[in-house]
Amino acid sequence: GGDTARVRGAFQDITEQKRREETLRKLREKYQDLLEGAPDAIFVADVESGRIMGANRAAASLLGTTTEELIGRDQSELHPSGDAGKYRSLFRRAVQGAGKSNKVFSELEDGTQVFVETDSGEQVPVEISATRVDLGGEEAGGEALVGIFRDITEQRTRENVLRAAKEGAEKARREAEEAARLKSAVLANMSHEIRTPLTSIIGFAEAIGENPEAASRFAPLIEKSGKRLLETLNGVLTLSELEAGQVEFDEETVGLKEEAETLVEELRPQAEEAGIGCRVEANGQPVRARADKGGVQIALRNLVANAIKYTEDGEVVVRAYRKEGASREGGTSGQEGQAVLEVEDTGIGMDPEVAEDLFEPFRQASEGVSREYEGTGVGLAVTKEAIDQMGGTIEVETEKGEGSRFTVRLPRAEGSGGEAGSAEGKDNPPVVPGS
Q1: Is the same domain home to 143 and 129?
Q2: How many CA atoms lie within 13 A of 203 on its CB side?
Q3: Percent of residues in the chain assigned helix, strand, coil, to nearest 5
Q4: Residue 298 sits in which domain range?
Q5: pLDDT tens profile 198-215
Q6: Is 63 found in the same domain as 124?
């Protein structure tokens, strides 16, 4: 009955223990020099149970333990505990695949790297070379799987460095190609923007020389071409000066609403000529930025002029408002707020992915001499550079065919907070009818 089963179990345990002891003795006799002299970690496991029957000093060192502690462990315990099932499957594959010649494993079935886990919890990448060996028949221990575990940390590091170098080289190649393409586009744009008005000026001047009576008709066209040429040169020179740090911005209090109204009034004739509206929206509160007046004018002029250029129907709206910042007590703090300018149009808009590159010099939503709209593509680059140097930010929201909205945020001047009880602490733009 039960006593007989217990005796049989105890007898089997003793038999298993004696079998392991005999296996270890034979291993020591047959492989002692090989095991202990090897620089790589070597484990010997029973092919049936997967139990570790032997290990060398390098194996103990790799795992951060002793050879005595390793004996009797299941082979899956050498690996990360969370993947025990995957490593038992790996062991079965190794047993089935390993014959007299080595079978090398560095990845699990799912393609992930093989690791061992040290007693301290560190995971070390390894490459396992597995071979089945005959220990001299079932009475002497049967077959075992000998696994040589090679630490490939340095190899993986070198591979990662090489991969990073290749990726860096590929990125540099792509950037060089893009730079070359952009250079070609820049040269084409600049050539077009300089040659076209110059050709017009020369042509109209020749026409006047041949027919002086036509002066009144061609003079305005010469003026228009001259202004276009001057605008091109001014844009490129301004960007160059900004990037070279040759433009100094003074910190002063600038009324954004007043600057917007002045600029819109100046550019309204251009908008009317294009058949669109151009206006300023602002509530009664003062909107004062801590910025440079000239820098604000650069940004406003470029943004509003661009909006007029790319809007065929509808209007361009410039908004000026304050944005409050929350204080630690949950109230508001004027010193933490921002002065905000928005320039919104109902124009052609653009693909949002294209918009990401708009602030790069010489970039436009469409490029090449066949593009629909004239310009060098430096206006927004100049705008961003000026805003950056004044400690502000600029962003764009756009959708192709739906128009664009450029938002400029500048540090707000101290003392420009709202009256007590005013609705602040959040974005507070003026109400836009129909928006």
Answers
A1: yes
A2: 8
A3: 50, 25, 30
A4: 249-411
A5: 888 888 888 888 888 888
A6: yes
Of 269, 270, 273, 260, whose CA–CA distance to 340 is shortest? 260
Please name which of 58, 60, 65 lies closest in space to residue 36, comparing C-alpha atoms. Answer: 58
Closest CA to 46 of 84, 117, 95, 88: 95
C-alpha span between 253 and 383 (Å, rounded): 19
Computed from CA positions of residues 71, 87, 85, 83, in that sequence, does the dihedral angle turn out positive or negative? positive
Tell me how crowded residue 292 is: count the other CB atoms within 10 A of its CB: 20
How far, CA to CA in Å, does 306 sit from each of 238, 347, 399? 17, 10, 16
225 in a structural domain: yes
Domains in the chain, number: 3
Distance CA 7, CA 251 (A): 95
Which of 284, 308, 278, 287 shows the shortest CA–CA distance to 379?
Answer: 308
Looking at the structure, do residues 259 and 327 belong to the same domain, yes or no? yes
Model pLDDT for residues 142-187, shown as the tens digit of each residue: 788 989 999 999 999 999 999 999 999 999 999 888 778 767 766 7
- What pTM was computed for the model? 0.49
Rg (Cα) of the chain, in Å, rounded? 39
Q: In angstroms, rounded to a whole number, what is the distance separating the alpha carbons of residues 156 and 123? A: 13
Structure tokens given for 434: 């129909």
- What does the mean pLDDT of the chain come to? 80
Indicate the angle between helix axes 379-389 and 215-243, nearest 10 degrees.
40
Surface-to-core class of residue 260, CB atoms within 10 Å of its CB (0-12 exposed, 13-18 middle, 19+ buried): buried
Element (H, E) at 344: strand 332-345
- Encoded tokens for 26: 């034979």
Residue tagged 């790069």 (tokens): 360
For a pLDDT cut of 70, what percent of the chain falls above it?
Answer: 76
Cα separation of 235 and 247, whole Å? 14
